[in-house]
Design goal:
8-stranded antiparallel beta barrel
């Protein structure tokens, strides 16, 4: 190897090390490959017109959590909330867990139930969770997923 080739090799070595380090670090995290992926799950409520709108679709924020941020205004009545896919599918139409209050409290995890058979396809709103925002503002809805299904929900104000 000539002195010129050795010099070129040493000049490109830091760049090669940097590229290799980046490849190794990004390859070790499965979440980096899934960041901001759509889940196919939506907040369904009066403020979404009960529709599965893209603006209310949960996006992955970690390997097991997904989030939506939305603006809410108190209107004197609590909002009814479900977490569901576009088709209100069984196992993906999630609401209040049996034997629990249907009210959700800010900054408190709420267990979800997606395991009931929805006998009434026309009105899939059974077991809705109720939420009364204390003031107008932006709120973060975060769900924890287990095997792709939501198991709990937390609502927090966004500062």
């Amino acid at each position: 190897m000539t002195p010129v080739n050795v010099k070129r090799l040493f000049n490109s070595l830091p760049l090669a090390i940097c590229a290799l380090s980046t490849l190794i670090v990004s390859g070790c995290s499965t979440f980096n490959n899934n960041k901001n992926l759509e889940t196919g799950l939506f907040i369904r409520s009066e403020f979404t017109w009960w529709e599965a709108r893209k603006a209310f679709e949960f996006k992955m924020i970690s390997d097991t959590e997904a989030k939506v941020i939305t603006e809410l205004k108190p209107d004197g009545k609590p909002y009814n909330i479900k977490i569901a896919d576009k088709a209100w599918s069984n196992l993906k139409n999630c609401g209040n867990a049996p034997q629990e209050s249907n009210k959700i409290i800010l900054n408190t995890w709420k267990r979800l139930d997606c395991n009931y058979q929805n006998a009434d396809k026309i009105a899939p709103l059974n077991q809705a969770i109720t939420f009364s925002p204390p003031e107008a503002g932006h709120y973060s809805f975060v769900i924890t997923l287990d095997n792709g299904l939501p198991i709990k929900l937390i609502i927090s104000p966004v500062n």
